[in-house]
Amino acid sequence: MVHPFWFIYTLILVSTTGCLAVSLPQLSFINTTLHPDISVLDLLELPKRAAKPFYLRIAPLGASISNGYLSTDGNGYRKYLRDQLRFDGWPVNMVGSINTGSMKDNENEGHLGWTIQQVTDSALPNIITLQPNLVLINVGANNAGQNNGISTAAGLYIELLDKLWAGIPGATVILSTLLPNKNSDTNAGAVAINEQIRTTVASHYVGLNKRFAIADMNDGFITVADLNDETHPLDSGYKKMASVWWAAIQRAERNGWLIAPANAGFSDATTEATIYNCPKVYGAGDGNYQIQRGSGTDSGKYVHASEDQGVVWTAPTLTLKGDINYGDNFFFAQLVNFSGVRGAEVDDIIMANFTGKTWAWQFWVNNNNNAFAAGQSFDPGYSCPPNASRFADLNNDGLDDFVCIDTQGNLRASINEGGNPPFFRPYGIIGTSPRFWSSAYTVDLVYLADIDGDGRADWCILVELGSVSCLRNGGQGILPIASAGGFWQGFKSSSAEDWTVVFPGQGRGNAAGVNLVDLNGDFKADWLFMTPTGQVDTFINNRGTGQGMVPDWEYVNVTHGGLSSFGVTNANSVVKFGRMYGTGKRDYIWIQAVPLVGNFASAIQIHVWKNLGSGGTFLKGDGTHYCDMDGDGKDDYVWVGPNGLIDIYLNTNNRPFWENHGSVITLGVSRKTIHIADLNGDGRCDLLSVDRNSGAIRMWLNTWNPGPRTWSFTDKGIVSGAASCTMGYGVVENDLGVRFADLTGDGKADYLCIWPNGRVDGYLNRGMSSTGQISFEDVRQIKSATNYDRQDIRFHDVNGDGRADLLWIDKYSGDTAVQINDGEIPSSGSHFHWGVRAVLYKGWDRGSNMVFGAIGGQHRADIIQVIPKTNVAYISYNKCASGNGSGGDDADMGNPGLPLYKSPWSLRRFRK
């Protein structure tokens, strides 16, 4: 039975101390020796005290206010309170599974958007493992805001407290009332909840011998003027909260409740009390250490071979005898794409005719196998002479667009919007001439070629000494201009003025001999030099190393013997390169003038040598992956071959030496479709193949046999059910529309569908059924569009909280920005809330060479450089920054100057 004077005791304690202390007999007595108008908490202005006998291991438990949301430094009340406790002589270790704020000892258990029940179910277990001796609880504002469980709040709090003491029997627990709220409906809910805290919850623990107090955050000391938005405090409001907590802790100390924390397997004096959680700090990595000596295979050096197809097409029009420049009027480009398959493009034949007033254009669709449709006319959008005309894919849609170069060096473009005949929409100037452009430059020195292999043609100019200087075509839009969602940038920096030499001059002396075309079918333009007789020697374009995006060029000697046996001496005009057979490789095309009877005119014929060359398309480093294959908590090294060969190297903490298990299985699917992730949550990564068009997931279940140290992979077939993603994948490395990562922290990889602009939709993995199907819950948008290139986006657990965070890798430097995953908190139309973007990883190579894996066994993503040519790898371990965890923030242990907390009630009011 509740004591008949309980309500009076409640009012007296709340009004004088801001904390309702219950359960132990002495708490029913009030210190009445103070002056009638002085609150107990006027004693805050105390001198610095001697050190206390044990640590306060404090767990701030709750939702966004415990997290410090909307405070300028992210610390909320926590650092103010910690500084006050240190000033009072207490050694302090803040604990929790979350790291937020600029303070070093920034662990907490504040989950944005969570309700009382969510904290009980999912946050409380985290702190029970840490065994704090002091728990500060502020939760319930989301119940009030969502009108969720308001009438039953007392029961929810009691459930939370009972479970807490069941797991941490000796803990002192301080439960706060809810702050006032600017939203009238939410505030009404908060008032109702606070009434239950002060009465039902408080009275429930009378006589139960619990170390329990209530800190009243809604007694008039903190007002709506102290709020940043409707709910969360300003910095000044958080500082007032610290005063109220401090008052409650003082009362607990005076009552003798505070005891040394239990042994939880770590020392409070160390810097890593929560061993699975620490914030990443830029430049704080531990490296660089070599972890791979080089393994895997590549496609070898490019070796050219060809097959003479003979004459495959004859033009329906004739050329006059002596017209030696007829070859300049022919182009080969994919204007109409019937197959729609990237890498299987076939170029149509294009011819320009001058009518006396303007240029008229015709094309013949290439039906493959040397078959061509009837000619059709089309309008490229501009009347442009052939020598100033270029056809190139500007937006990575597989269709070639049209560019006209004026005499000042400006680029005008029209986009091929498809159709047969194609429709070209003019967009005006998309590139203004570089500063170095002068009368010495002519349009024939301008090239549109894909240097970085992302499917978008870059802008290149042949400069002094034959060097090739380029700007990169960037962005996700249809053109490299801001109004169309794109931009120009350099190959060493993102500046649009950074014209970068991507290929050094070779001293050949004949500008007309330079060709930038993809000879080996990897979407990267190679450098070919052709002599007047048609002989070609070649440098193959490979992904390089070092910061920036300049390629690594490999000389492969003479690739084409030429046409000297045919008497050709004008090859630079009459020899072209085109994709005639759907292999992605450029074939050698001779535009041949065959004299007709009478010698007054010639027939134009196309003679083709089909490219049968191979090599130079993939590198050893292309196959490197990291995932835990044996369930020991450390990522292993997995090398994936182009046809799905899987080599596994177990991580035995003896890097760069790994336990080599060689060829474990061959999946027989393209490497770009393969993903490695734990779908069924058993701690071991499975092998997955994702259909490019539908996103359907085929799974090979990983069964690890620890005795013989072998694997069996069971083909489970398609396991994705109705889950789908039609984003496919791009042509450049890492441009993947599907990725897998554990966003919820439940140990199972979720299914992410990534748009080209960085928007992420997806399905949460709810487990594998008895039939072997994965139950995927469609939560739609997971992350709003970032406008990051998709190829630069990754998902890895950065801080060790079990949830994969969003990473964006800088193409040039490898520096990596992170947005911390705050969990399933609906925000801005997304199912998850993501923290503020901050650069946390320091790269030392271009972004395409930087990968991530939890190699060190700390459940945090380490950054790794994989040298593409050799597959030698170096790591910087994701270590907790020096001073993180307990013992930090102690450089200045002076009085933090908490605002003087005076209750609006006087003691004398309740004295009668």
DSSP helical segment count:
9
Second rung of CATH, namely the architecture of the largest domain: 5 Propeller
Number of domains: 3
Q: Point out poorly predicted stretches.
A: 1-48, 271-276, 882-887, 904-912
* CATH class annotation of the largest domain: Mainly Beta
Helix content: 10-25%
Q: Total strand count, please?
A: 49
For the sheet with most strands, the description reads: 8 strands, mixed
Q: What would you call the quaternary organization?
A: single chain
Q: Radius of gyration from the CA trace?
A: 35 Å
CATH fold label of the largest domain: Tachylectin-2, Chain A
N-C termini distance: 24 Å
Question: Can you give a write-up of this model?
Answer:
- The strands form 11 sheets. Strands 1, 2, 3, 4, 5, 6, 7 and 8 form an 8-stranded mixed β-sheet that branches. Strands 19, 20, 21, 22 and 23 form a 5-stranded antiparallel β-sheet that branches.
- This protein has 3 domains: 50-278, 3-Layer(aba) Sandwich (Rossmann fold); 286-298 and 618-877, Tachylectin-2, Chain A, CATH 2.115.10; 326-584.
- It has 912 residues and is mainly beta.
- The chain contains 9 helices and 49 strands.
- The radius of gyration is 35 Å and the shape is elongated.
- The chain is 12% helix and 32% strand.
- Helix 3 (78-87) packs across helix 8 (235-254).
- A hairpin with a 5-residue loop joins strand 20 (458-462) and strand 21 (468-475).
- The model is unreliable at 1-48, 271-276, 882-887 and 904-912 (pLDDT under 50).
